[in-house]
Amino acid sequence: MKNIVMFTSSTCPHCKSAKQFLDEKGYKYVERNVQLDPLAQQEMVQRKLMGVPSFVIGDETIVGLDKHKIEALIDYTVEKCPECGQRARVPKGKGKVKVNCKSCGNAYVVLTKSMWQQGG
Description:
Thioredoxin-like_sf, Grx-like_ET, four-stranded mixed beta sheet, single chain, alpha+beta, Glutaredoxin, disordered C terminus, two-stranded antiparallel ribbon, 120 residues
């Protein structure tokens, strides 16, 4: 599954909204604060990213909080176990996927959508 890296700054209100969006969706990401981390700032310059929040998802980059584009690039969804509510990452576009909950052991099936069904 694709890694998500988000470049942020400490004073950016849009970065806070972006973190809240990713957290609510259950997406795992690595935050790189360009105000606190000179290597993050250098990487952002090398990638020619000119603002925060900026995202690197797999090989793609996004500047700004474009929720639709972010979700289209992420190759998984986060599903909750119907028994205990534990979240699990499920790959997109695989049809029926059997999930075994790591928390309670419940086995359940998730019907994943193909990319064309998701509008991506």
